[in-house]
Amino acid sequence: MKTMNCKQLGGACDKEFHADSFEEIAEMSKQHGMEMFKSNDEAHLKAMNEMQQRMQNPDAMMEWFETKRAEFENLSES
Asked: What is the pLDDT of residue 25?
């Protein structure tokens, strides 16, 4: 199992996610983001806006995603 936090995944806080695969951790981060959106958390809304801007360029988004996947793969098991 590996651990990444919200900030490492483009978010705004130190909440930790623990998973065996990058796909699992990305889904946990997404769910957390939706919860923060519903609660109108200002810091997370800003981070989401930055992510939406990144998504405007598919190549940049893919590069970001693959960088995060590599970061996950290089983590030590916890």
From this structure: 96
